[in-house]
Amino acid sequence: MTVSNFSIEFYPPHTAAGEARLDAVHAELSQLDPDFFSVTYGAGGSTRHGTRQLVMKYQAQGSEIAPHLSFSGLNEDGVLELLHSYLNAGISRLVALRGDIPSGSGTSVHSRYASELVEFIRHKTGDAFHIEVACYPEIHPEARSYAADVNYFKDKVEAGANSAITQYFYNADAYFHFRDYCAKQGIGIPIVPGIMPITNYQNLARFSIKCGAEIPQWLGRKLETFGEDTAGLRTYGLEVVSELCERLLVGGAPGLHFYSMNLAGCVKALWDNLSLSDR
Ligand code: FAD
Q: In sequence order, which residues have a C-beta less than 8 Å from that of residue 167 and are 6 or more positions away?
């Protein structure tokens, strides 16, 4: 079992200026020496070229990097072609997902479950990749029930996933309860908490509704009070998220995965507050 697993997530920028900014962020965060960076795969496969290009660039610069991947927008040949290009570049870690369904596409879009993708990758490439999957301590918004969602998570593990990264949450007990419940269901892979720094309350509130992450009352009401005071909100957010991370690590979390939103400052501050370079 991996005992320490600290990673940082980027998304592919839409513009050349955004990419230049991300290059600087990547260079700055590389100094923290995370176990790996990951790069998301846009809903519906919208960033598959951007994801691959970014992954190849940072891999060539010496970073351990994990592309996110889904069947979204690709048939099996397309996925296979991507897998081979990653293998040829020396990439050995993936984050395998069903992917978000693109907004406006309706419910008729057929999206293959992540367990099918994990199975496909194992079938085609054996043990060449360490496969990460997603899981949801506060339950995936489309799930029928808590038990059903954990059962489907177990399908991904049985298909060959090596470790999991959670959706973000601000309630440490949700994570501990989920981890312990998964263990009782026979899920033995490391479950790494996904950590979302707090930088903008409106965006966070909107996104949390969409992805089913709860902002606890005590936190939401406090964040509302900052209004336009972005610096105050970030300072308070850093305090809250640092405490959350500390509690998770003390409680046995096997690492942390930071959703950087392509910003260096918050991740770096959290990393320093938690002395992660010394853990
Ligand atoms: P799945 O595990 O396939 O589950 C999806 C839903 O279907 C769940 O409700 C589950 O309970 C249910 N389900 C699973 N199997 C079955 C079955 N056999 N029968 C019936 N129901 C089933 N999105 C992106 O578009 N790009 C990214 O790069 C990206 N990165 C992410 C990284 C992390 C760490 C996390 C936590 C999420 C990420 N997402 C990303 C969001 C993710 O794609 C969405 O949450 C998506 O809706 C579900 O993906 P999944 O891989 O968890 O799906």
A: 134, 135, 136, 137, 138, 140, 194, 211, 212, 213
Closest atom of ligand 1 to CA, residue 149: 11
**What atom of ligand 1 comes closest to residue 141's alpha carbon?**
9
Specify whether 9 is catalytic.
yes
User: Residue 10 carries which DSSP code?
Assistant: E
Residue nearest to atom 23 of ligand 1 (CA): 99
For residue 18, how far is its CA from the centre of ligand 1 (angstroms)? 27
pLDDT, tens digit, for every residue of 168-179? Answer: 999 999 999 999
Q: Which long-range contacts (CB under 8 A, 24 or more apart) does 198-202 make?
A: 198/223, 198/233, 198/234, 198/236, 198/237, 198/238, 198/240, 198/241, 198/266, 199/230, 199/233, 199/234, 199/237, 199/261, 199/263, 199/266, 200/230, 200/233, 201/226, 201/233
Tokens of 156: 């991904």
pLDDT tens track for 47-77: 778 999 999 999 999 999 999 999 988 889 9
CA 233 to chain centroid, in Å, comes to: 23
For residues 279 and 274, give the distance between their C-alpha atoms in angstroms, rounded to a whole number: 9
Instruction: Render the burial of 217-243: b for 16+ CB within 10 Å, e for the rest.
Output: eebeeebeebeeeeeebbebbbebbbe
Virtual torsion, Cα 176, 177, 180, 185, nearest 10 deg: -140
Asked if 50 and 11 touch (Cβ cutoff 8 Å), the reply is: no
User: Would you call 245 helix, strand, or coil by DSSP?
Assistant: helix
Rounded to whole angstroms, how far apart are CA atoms 24 and 165?
A: 25
Taking residue 173's Cβ as centre, other Cβ atoms within 10 Å add up to 11
d(CA 114, CA 161): 10
